[in-house]
Amino acid sequence: MPGVNRLLVNNIRKSFGTHEVLRGISLDARDGDVISLLGASGSGKSTFLRCINLLEIANDGEIWVDGEQIRMIHKNGKSRPESARQVDRIRSELGMVFQSFNLWSHMTILQNVIEGPIHVLKRPRVEAIAEAEALLEKVGIADKRHAYPAHLSGGQQQRAAIARALAMKPKVMLFDEPTSALDPELVGEVLRVMRALAEEGMTMLVVTHEMSFARNVSNRVVFMREGLIDSSGTPDEMFGGTGSPAFRQFIGHFGS
Amino acid sequence: MSTLELLGFGSTGWGALLLVATLLTLAVTAAALAIGAVLGTIVAGAKLSGNRLLWALGHAYTTIFRGVPELLIIYLIYFGGSSAITSIGKAFGYEGFLGLPSFAAGALAVGIISGAYQAEVFRGAYQAISKGELEAASAIGMGARTRFRRIIMPQVLRLAIPGLGNVWQLSLKDSALISVTGLAELMRTSQVAAGSTRQYFLFFIAGGCLYLILTSLSDQVFNRAERRANRSMPSAAMGKA
Amino acid sequence: MDFAFLSSTMVTLLAALPMTLALFICSITLGGLLALGLVWMRTGGNPFLVGFAKAYIFVFRGSPLLIQMFLVFYGLGQFGIIRYSFLWPLLREPFVCAVLSLALCTAGYTAEIFRGGIRAVSPKEIEAARSIGMSGFMLVRRILAPIAFRHALPAYSTEVVLMMKSTALASLVTVWEVTGVAQRLISHTYRTMEVFLCAAIIYLVLNFIILQAMGLLEYYLSRHRRAMPSALKA
Fold it and tell me: Do B64 and C187 touch (CB under 8 A)?
């Protein structure tokens, strides 16, 4: 329901060795929010996204998913999650779509999509297959369900990856540069699926370079620079000439 | 006596014995490979664990058993094993010499050796798995055990097939050395036949041909297995889908 | 730890080391030359030579070295023409039989390794050489062989280590190299573990030396692929 805080992130810090990549990022996402995360390479946006589902472990900060905090232990300057089980459970409530799709190469598309529901959510097989087929229909590749990932184009693989994430019925979808690895003519088909998702009310956090998506589909734009949030606001605010000078310089490169 | 009679199945023929010996060679090689698979998995796990002590132990294992001549290792297991069993026997009051059965000694020795090679095959296969696919499994909330069972194992097995095919061929040929323990496998039987009939050339050629048949058949089996396992991979004939 | 026994064992085994080394060096050299001949046959155009080379490689890679060695040691003596030829004094020596057999076997494996190295040579580099008029033996010597050998080096160093291990089989045709002496010691003293330990150390040291030498060779041959020395940077 609208207004509920699906995701709350407070003061995330992350260093790789001596290099501090994230210097204190805070963000909240309410139900139905579609947030675009923009920034130059090295600004830390992918790292931030990966900290949310603990593919990277933040050195400091708190993360709440749907009101539940991920319990962490901070000792001797090292951090780790307190409960692997809690991490697994929370990850199953967050969907992630990767830049390089990461479909499991030894399984067909259909098997990829039902894998999570059957082996993580313990749903009955028949039910999982029925729902998977509906999802594949929705993203437009139902006819490829028995094909292997290597036999599909990049755009088809990414749509399959989206279906796989959706099969887990996540509360929040995380997208890590979903179209950056695609040939230009295949980008559109993936953006269309993402737009449809947004219009259905899915809470989405999208790291992207696709300005059209940021402007037209998201309801909030966050601009990161050097490990901090430089500015944020609605697309109209940010793109309408009232964004910060750094942001205006950034989008100047994209010739909007 | 004619060549045909010597090789045939009649009363003076060695044909039947040679065929049984061939089966024994296959059996001891299969046993060795099974032992090696268990050892190889453990050692590969040790080398991949990130723990330095475990890595060192695993590395010592693969270095020693790939670097020392197979014949020496067979002597170690056969003579050493027999000594060990004899001392155990003494502890129970039996005074005589107890030998380690040659099949067991041979399978164990070749098994330990193949384990060292299999460890490297499994390790290479694991490292060839796309890290992204492992991340996707974690991201979906899959626990470590499930991930191992559903994503890692199937891929390791698929990627390991060419390497395992090589190890099989290697072990098949190493099994000929088990003849020093007296086991009546193909090498020993050829030797015995050659010695008792003085037809050395004939029987060593015959034995060699039987080995060639074994290795070519194995080659075909593994090629077929590799093709089947790779049906999920892109084929050269495809363009952009 | 019976150090006295260990050291006397070590001394006994080391006395057999020259024989192991002799077997190794002779068979590697002879085998390498045979392999070059085989590769030339295999990659030439002549269908008979190609067929012969393929058959040779198939036979020697598909059967155990031991049976090949027994065939040479026991089998050749069966034929009158060999026994009465001028080669017989040579061929009835166990050492010669062992070296011959080891060389024939390694030639098969090495030929395949060299062939793999040749296939890894980029046709473009060959084309460039032809376009300046280079051909035939000079092309092979100056362009093809160096590049092919560098590609083949990792696989070849594995083969060289295998050759070192294979010398142990000569003990089964009465050549007194390290493994043969070790086996005799074991059967006299029943102290398997200690003898194995000493013999294993000898072989592991030999392998280490081989791999280091191969590594140096690879380093030397790859000068052009490493980063430019800072003195040359503009």
Answer: no
